[in-house]
Amino acid sequence: MKLRQNLRLGETLYETKLANGLTVKVYPKSGYHKTYAILTTNYGAIDKTFIPVGATDYVTVPDGIAHFLEHKLFEKKDYDAFEKFGRYGASSNAFTSFTRTSYLFSTTSHLRENLDILLDFVQEPYFSTETVEKEKGIIGQEIQMYNDEPDWRLFYTVIGNLYPSHPVRTDIAGTVDSIAQITPEALYQAHATFYQPSNMNLFIVGQIDDPDEVVDWLNANQAAKTFAQPTEIVRSLPEEAEDGHDIIPYRSLEMPITRSKSMVGIKGLTDYGTGQLALETKLKMNLLLELLFGDSSTQVQNLYNEGTLDDSFGYEFAIQRSFNFVTLGGDADNAQALSDAIINILEHATESPDFSEDNLALVKKAAIGEYLQAFNSLEAIANQYSDEFFTEISPFDVLGLIEQVTLDDLQQMATEYFKIETMTVCHILPEEANHA
Amino acid sequence: MNQKITDGVYLNILQTNQFKTIRLTVQLIAPVTADGMTRRSLLASVLGASSQAYRDQVAMANELQAMYGAGFNINAHRQGNLAIFSIAMRIVSPQYLRDTADLQEQAIAFIGQLLLHPDVIGGQFNPVVFNREKDNLVRYIESVADDKQSYAAVELRKLYFKDEPQQIPNYGDVTDLATITPAELYTYYQAMIANDRVQMTFVGNIDEAKTSAALAQLPFAPRNVELPTVFYQQALYPKVQTKTEVQPVQQSKLNMAYQMPAYFYQADYYATMVMNALFGGTPLSLLFTNVREKASLAYYASSAIDAFRGVITVQTGIESQQKDRVLAIIEAQRQRIITGDFEQAVFEQTKLALINQFKSSLDSAAYLGQQQFNRLFVPETEIDAANFTQAVLAVSKQAVQKQAAKMQLQAVYFLKGVDTDEA
Predict the structure, then answer these.
(1) One domain for residues B160 and B269
(2) What's the total number of domains in chain B?
(3) Same-domain check for residues A285 and A155
(4) Neighboring chain B residues of A305 at a CB cutoff of 8 Å
(5) A80 by DSSP, 3-state: which?
(6) Claim to verify: residue A270 and residue A150 sit in the same structural domain
(7) How far apart are CA B64 and CA B60, in angstroms?
(8) What CATH number should be reported for the domain holding residue B198?
């Protein structure tokens, strides 16, 4: 097993790849009572056009199938995985993002039994017409609930504007209409293609007595199953304009809310991949956004004082396989004034009074502190470091990467990324009728 | 051990190397009142926004960044009969940093700045800051109405509790808020600092010698504090309180309150905890499996205990025409517990889930601090995993049945959605 260590922090990560291609990372935390394990496949909502295992032509499957599959994997012919974890008092969950699907449990006893349950239920699919039909009702409710949430609508309108055809524009859960088309056959096909061990990783963190023993358990579990030879996964994405000219610059909608919402989105036109470059880009962009829009930004403080924005203001940089974008926004009395102010700061990023060496030093200190603090949380460790970014890079390399960022790096980042032609704006306004 | 610093002022240090951080909490405790809830909520915003040393957010943010991304949180909440005003700081444990050996003292000084040196001009809070924070709080309260799940919870609480101090959400009452002035809030603040019980709780790798010296930054005068019992109970109503409201939302919310006279680590507490977990407190519960999963009637359906106020609430998100069916199914699940019509396996699993939850929370510094705090007001509070495990495993099926029978439905709040397409 490969060892990655940080003596100062007193942390060690063990890494190995099993015979069938499954990547395993084991991270003991002394003093902890809980163990958290997360099994992730490199497959998410955007992977809707692909060549299925054993086939030669592309297929395009209904929106929401990755999420649907995630829900359905728990239910088996003769058992429910949720309940099986429950027999040991463990709790389990799963989530689907644009590019990943993860299954997890946390437990304070019977680690081996729980690991077996996790691997077995994820690797042994069972879908029937009856259970698939029933699930459509449950997920349909979930989709409707999100439709009532203004912040969710704001976010999806923004990325819908940025991406006229990339599937990231669609709700991860799909639509009521798209999920109606899902069949057991389509689920089996997606599973066979994307749930190959070579496309997955298992991260185990927390109370672990002996990492080697844990790997022995996993090997024993996998040896009892037969897996097809790993195949290359071929996906396809629709073409979008390289210069971003197909971005929809503005959209507004009305909802039954009391206060308007405003959001600016910026589409990244460069593909940074999923390795070290992507991670460095993420760290730099987060430092840049913190300088310009974080708690220590004088420009944001002025906007706060004059009432243009409030505590709900926030920003996010999303960078995953095949896309990256920034969103910034929040609640506002005047949605237009907030989006104008955000764009103004972005366009003059490097002239900002906040864009200085001194401020960068402070923002980096804070980032270092946050990085260290995250080692308190088993979930944070596993969720962050099971990411594709950390295929080659070690969690303990991040400190060095933060330290080496310079103001020049950020200047370059701002010039490259903050272009008016790659931005969009969405406003959600209160429905007039409701206040009459 | 809880050390007395002076009359009414205490410091409790929990030494542990489990975390990469140190957590420092100072709490001011008083009997809960309706006026107090709103004023303390506003104070949390005002004191967190500026102080004499940090006049604005930028100055404050720069100080926190210089302290390696220290985090602080000020909030006011209610626990039964007590109003608790808290300021908590989280810093990286200095042993992991290259250049900041006195971070712990800096953090204590920072708390002292915020709490004891507020931005006051001529006997009142700086009106510019005050008005801005007040407006923001008003807007926040109004925006809660946009989140229908929270809105339904607030309305249920208003329906169930008769006493205003118990009805008011932790963030306060918007009508009362409008009447508060900078001078009046400052008067309230002075009384709070002078009269409330002060409880400091420090968790982590704490340097005790340096702590003692740094406490000079938190010079609280001696005080005599009389606090009521933490436990509150709403008297029974002769009939169920009901309210229905109609709003243009796709998903309806059905919330219920049951009186459940069993309190935090008092008689029958473990049995009540197991009963609630079986009823709707976990994903294995009857509400989850029968209302959500089996009948596909709801997106969510769960129950929760407020063990300081002796109430169990149920919350669901449903289609509006399913209300009566959902009500009937929820009551049927309670009847199943009363008659013992639940699987032994599920019963055992539920207990294991509670034990798992308890042990897991021992991995959180905030929880360890909260445990210490609870022990001061409820000495029976269990902090030991082995004792907790034993007590949960000892709960019998009969004890759980008995507790379910004691639940009395007292309030039903229904937020009826009208499909916007049909309207």
Answers:
(1) no
(2) 2
(3) no
(4) 128, 132
(5) strand
(6) no
(7) 6
(8) 3.30.830.10
CA–CA separation, B87 and B81 (whole Å): 20
Chain B neighbors of A369, CB-CB under 8 A = 67-70, 91-92
Domain hosting residue B381, numbered range:
241-417
> Does the distance separating the beta carbons of A82 and B284 come in below 8 Å?
yes
Q: What is the pLDDT of residue A434?
A: 45
Q: Which of A148, A149, A378 should one mutate to test binding to chain B, selecting the residue with the greatest count of B CBs within 10 A?
A: A148
What tokens appear for A24 in the block?
């395993």
Residue with tokens 């008297």: B235
Q: Strand, helix or coil at A241?
A: coil
Q: Domain for residue A74, yes or no?
A: yes
User: Are residues A130 and A274 both part of a single domain?
Assistant: no
Contact B296 A296 (CB under 8 A): no
In-domain check, residue A169? yes
Considering the domain architecture, whether residues A429 and A355 belong to the same structural domain is answered as yes
- Lowest-pLDDT choice from A118-122, A253-257, B66-70, B418-422: B418-422
ipTM reported for the complex, 2 dp: 0.86
* Burial of residue A112, with CB atoms counted within 10 A of its CB: 0-12 exposed, 13-18 middle, 19 or more buried: middle
Average pLDDT rounded to a whole number, residues A420-434: 89
Residues B273 and B150 in one domain: no
Per the CB < 8 Å rule, is A141 touching B251?
yes
Mark whether B276 and B205 lie in a shared domain. no
Is A83 in Cβ contact with B20 (below 8 Å)?
Answer: no
Whether residue A344 contacts residue A315, with contact meaning beta carbons closer than 8 Å, is answered with: no
Nearest to A235 by CA among A201, A194, A270: A194
Residues of A in contact with B147 (CB under 8 A): 149
d(CA A143, CA A153): 11
Instruction: Give the domain-ending residue among A188, A223, A258.
Output: A223
Asked, for residue A120, whether it belongs to a domain, the answer is: yes
User: Tell me, what's the pLDDT at B423?
Assistant: 38
Cα–Cα distance, A347 to A7 (Å, whole number): 43
Q: Which of these, B192, B231, B366, lies nearest to B310 by C-alpha position?
A: B231
Task: Convert the pLDDT of each residue in A276-310 to its tens digit.
Answer: 999 999 999 999 999 999 999 999 999 998 999 98
**Of B318, B312, B333, nearest to B259 (Cα)?**
B312
* CB spacing of A148 vs B249 below 8 angstroms: yes
| B255 & B212 share domain | no
Residue A235 counted as domain residue: no
CATH number at residue A325: 3.30.830.10
Asked whether residue B92 falls in the same domain as residue B10, the answer is: yes
Q: Are residues B185 and B282 in the same domain?
A: no
Of B139, B299, B362, Cβ closest to residue A142: B299
pTM: 0.86
A306 touches chain B (CB under 8 A): no
Active site residue A290: no
A257 touches chain B (CB under 8 A): yes
Is A128:A185 a contact under the CB 8 Å cutoff? Answer: no
Same domain, B213 and B275: no
**Tokens at A404, concatenated:** 């080496």
> How large is the average pLDDT for residues B107-124?
96
Q: Which residues pair with residue A251 across a beta bridge? A: A426
Joined together, the tokens standing for residue A13 give 């990560």
> Helix, strand, coil proportions of chain B in percent (round to 5)?
45, 25, 30
Q: Tell me how many degrees the CA angle A41-A45-A47 measures, rounded to the nearest 5.
A: 75
Residue A401 distance to chain B (closest CA, Å): 16
User: Is it the case that residue B195 has pLDDT exceeding 80?
Assistant: yes
* Extended beta strands in A179-338, E state: 200-206, 250-255, 260-267, 314-320, 323-332
Chain A residue with CA closest to B98: the answer is A8
Domain residue limits at A128: 2-223
Count of domains observed in chain A: 2
